[in-house]
Each structure stands twice: as structure tokens, then as C-alpha cells.
Fold this sequence. Notes:
By secondary structure, this protein is of the alpha+beta class. It folds into three domains: about 15-275, Rossmann fold; about 285-380, Translation factors (Elongation Factor Tu (Ef-tu), domain 3, Beta Barrel); about 400-525, 2-Layer Sandwich (Alpha-Beta Plaits), CATH 3.30.70.3280. Helices cover about 25% and strands about 30% of the residues. An eight-stranded antiparallel sheet has the order 18-17-23-14-15-22-19-20, with no helix packed on it. Strand 14 (about 300-310) and strand 15 (about 315-325) form a beta hairpin. Guanosine-5',3'-tetraphosphate binds near residues 29 and 33. One of its GO terms (molecular function) is translation release factor activity, codon nonspecific. It is found in: Cytoplasm. InterPro entries: EF-G-like_DII, EFG_III/V, G_TR_CS, P-loop_NTPase, PrfC, RF3_C, RF3_dom_3_sf, Small_GTP-bd. This is Peptide chain release factor 3.
Amino acid sequence: MSQIPAKAADPQIIDQSSRRRTFAVISHPDAGKSTLTEALALHARVIGTAGATNGKSNRKDTVSDWMQMEKDRGISISSTALQFEYRDTVINLVDTPGHADFSEDTYRVLAAVDCAVMLIDAGKGLEVQTMKLFEVCRQRNLPIITVINKWDRPGLESLELMDEITERTGLRPMPLTWAVGIAGEFHGVADLRKNEYVRFTRNSSGASLALEEHFTPEEAQDVEGQLWSDALDEASLLESSGEFDLDGFHAGTATPVLYSSAAQNFGVRQILDALVDLAPSAAPRADADGEVRPVDAPFSGFVFKVQAGMNQAHRDHVAFIRVCSGIFERGMVVTHANTGKPFATKYAQHLFGRDREVIDQAWPGDVVGLVNASALRVGDSLYEDTPVTYPPIPYFSPEHFRVAHAKDPSRYKQFRRGIDQLEHEGIIQVLRSDRRGDQAPVLAAVGPMQFEVVQDRMAQDFNAPMRMETLGYSLARLTTKEAMTTLAPVRGVEVIIRSDGEYLALFNDVWALRRVAKNYPDLPLTQIGVNQDASV
Ligand code: G4P
């Protein structure tokens, strides 16, 4: 890789970039992502109290409830970034939509961050969605910090969880803390880096910081007796305990592990400390040609998400940019790399839930929401002065397919415009074939929620209500034009064209895929993205 020289190193930009930690939490629904988000923000004193222990119903007004407005409307999916300062470090927590709204957006966010926190429910271990997201992180060699949450509830044993992490992710677990007390009896953590015991006492409501007491190992032995010895014995059984391989963490081959009870605010400060001390800061990024653009080069960034209709009153269209180099200043006119046209950034915002703050300046690692950005698509690059194009964000393999029809055929033009626009925003992939015709495009999505968004937007924004018919396919592979003829008579399979001209073979199930692979060994069937089982 070659490196574009910066004109003269700009110490201010370099300093600001090195202070940035930009990360996302990857987890299965219900592992505690929202609770942890609040707890992290609480520790950084963004909010006064966190209502986590009282359940979701009491958290409506807290900062992490950024989705509520969309949920109320029956649509969802928005990802934004929460920014807070902790120990002189600026932490950007980029939301990965979870729950039923699992979608391509969830994956795309991972292109915009420098690190991921893999949050595991101590009672459940590694769950399906966590593994899918982990695969995307692995593909990007993203450093991962593992947090074992809900240790205040009965769950698996520590060593069992470490084995599971090793076996299923291939990452070498490197505990930074080790729980004192079995799952369900969370007394505190052995801080293996500082060689001390941190005992937590729950605040009566759990809604504010827990009391932390620090003990030397000798004191810990007196205070906790057998529980302390057990914790140390277990931790020492892990080969790696004691040594921390920072390079392995940054290369995505080893993972620091910490314990928490997000609901009780136990172990949360230690997570923030790990982010500050160990996670990578905003670093120079390689462009599409592999050339690295230094952080203090002129401004550049790329769009990782486009969101329309976030604010019903304004019907706006927001493009979320990850700043990669230089200083972003509101009002600056940048170049849209994909069209070569100027783009005015008059309306730049930092978005978090319902709260929007006008942003005046942003630095590498920060996320900026550009309003009225209908020209921008997911993956597009923006720059000032020296041109740069960042690598495209990959397509992910769709798992749900529906045929779309305009309810009112006389509104076909609006229907088509709406479908094209939603595809442009990256909400849905659009597939077509001569057999089905343009009147009946096939919509493809990673998560079924995306169809609801499409249906809602088509009716509300384009005045083109539509109906959908579910197709039974669940798998897609990239193939060639020839497959269209070859596979035409085969049941449970259909070859269809994506709007970028690629041919996709759709299969009912893994058996249909295996049958075709066996009967037509010369037919290319390439996996798309990394969100599907590659073993077939
Ligand atoms: P998510 O965003 O990952 O989907 O999870 P969320 O934070 O909403 O947490 C899911 C449930 O798990 C919540 O309960 C939350 O209170 C609980 N939870 C999160 N972290 C912890 C933890 O460390 N310990 C314990 N014991 N519970 C935790 P809920 O769905 O609101 O129901 P309820 O249990 O509060 O009634």
C-alpha cells in the first residue's frame, strides 16, 4: 500500500483522531445492548440516571431509545451515533439496529466503526445474530472486545463461556477482568491488569452508578475467601491469562474479555477503560485502490447509511457519514466523488434519537448526519481538495424475497419511482427477470422488517400503495447468465438479475442449493456477503 503524503502534519487533527474511539455493540436481541448503552452513557455522565433495571417501559425518555419514534410509526431502522467524552477521550457509539429490524443496515454500520463490543448474555452464550455480526467483523478484521453481561443472573460457567468463544469464533479470549462469584452471585471482578479486586455494591435502584471498592489481592482473600481463590484459579487456567496481546486484539485474532451487569452498572467503567486504553483510535483508511489517506489529509468520509423519513414533520433524507480524514465544518462545500458534483453541507447534524444537535465541526472517527442529502447513496465518498473514493460497502446476501405489485396499476410510474428511490437508499435490493417483467419486481432483504419499511414508505411518501407476495426462497448465490437457461426447468430455483447487472440464483432452501451444486458442478455459485453459512 502506498501512502498519500499529507501537506504538513496537522497536530490538531492528529490529536483529535487519536482521542476518538468509534465502536458498535454486536449482540443478539435481549442480550442487553440498550441497557449497556445507557450504562456507558451514565458512566460518562451524559445522563443523570439510567432506568435500565425497570425494564424497557420505563426507559422511553432515555437516550438510547432512539428508535421509538420510528417504532410508533410502525417502521423502524435508524442508526445514529451517541457521542460522549470519557477520560479526555471522545467515544462514538454507533447503533446497530437490533430486534426485529435486523437488516443490511446492521451490517453496514460495521463498515463505519473501528472496533466492536460483542455483548454476550451469560445465560445463553453466543447466539445466532451475534455470530452473524461476528462474521462480518471477522471479514473486516475488526478488533472485538467481548463483554459477558447479565452476570447477576444464573448462567453458564466462566470457563464454559471462554471455551465457547474460542471454539465458535476462533478468537483467543484474553480476560481483562474475571468475575468473582458465580453467575447469579456477582460480587465483583478481579481486575487482572491492575492486580486488584473491585467489589461492586448495587445502588438501591440500579439506576445510578454502583459503589466500587478496591482491594489488594490479600485484602480480597480476606473479604471474599474461597470466591476470590476460585476466580484466580479459573483465570489462571486460561493459557493466555496475565499476558495481553494488543497486536492480536487489533488484528482481530484475540479478544479482551470483561464481565458486566449492565442493569446494575457493574463492570461498566472497566469496559470504558478498555475502550480508552486498548481500542484503536480513528486511523488512516485505505481507499478503493489501497492507498492510505492520512487522517490529517483534507476532509473525506463515506456514507454508511441513508435514512429517509426520520422526522415525519420534515420528511427529510439524512445521509450518515463517517469522517475518515480532515476536519468537517458545517457549511463547507465538498465533492461527491461518485458524480464529481459539489455538495453543500449546510445542514449537518449529530443525531441521537429525537434529539438533533447541529454539528459545527467533526473529526476523523465522528459520524455526521447530512440532511437533505438525497443525492447520496450508501457507500458514496465525499472529499475536499484531494479526491478519494473509499471501497464500496458490500452487498449482503438477502434471505427474504417478495414480489411487489402496485395496488393501483394506474399509478405504476409512482410505484416504479418509489421502488427505485428505496433501492437507491439501500433499504431494499431490487431484482428482475424477463419472466416476471418490470411490473412485478422482486424485492430482496436481509431482514423481513425491511419490507414493512418499504410498504410504509411507498404509501406515505410516494402515494403508491403496493401489495406483496412472499416467495419461498431463502438463499441466494451469485451466478452467471448461462445459469438462467440451465436452471430454468429446475424446481425450487430461480435465476434473477440484480439492478447492478449481477445474476443471482435463488434457492428455496439449502437442499435445493446442494442439489444444484451436485448436478451442475461447473455452474458458478458464489456466496454473497458473509451473513450466510458458507459450508454449502
Ligand atoms: P437489547 O437492547 O440487547 O435487546 O437488550 P435490553 O437492553 O433491552 O435488555 C433486554 C432485557 O434484559 C431487559 O429486560 C433488561 O432489563 C435486561 N437486562 C439487560 N442487562 C441486564 C443485566 O445485566 N442483568 C439483568 N438481570 N438483566 C439485564 P426487559 O425486557 O425490560 O424486562 P425486565 O426484565 O426488565 O422486566
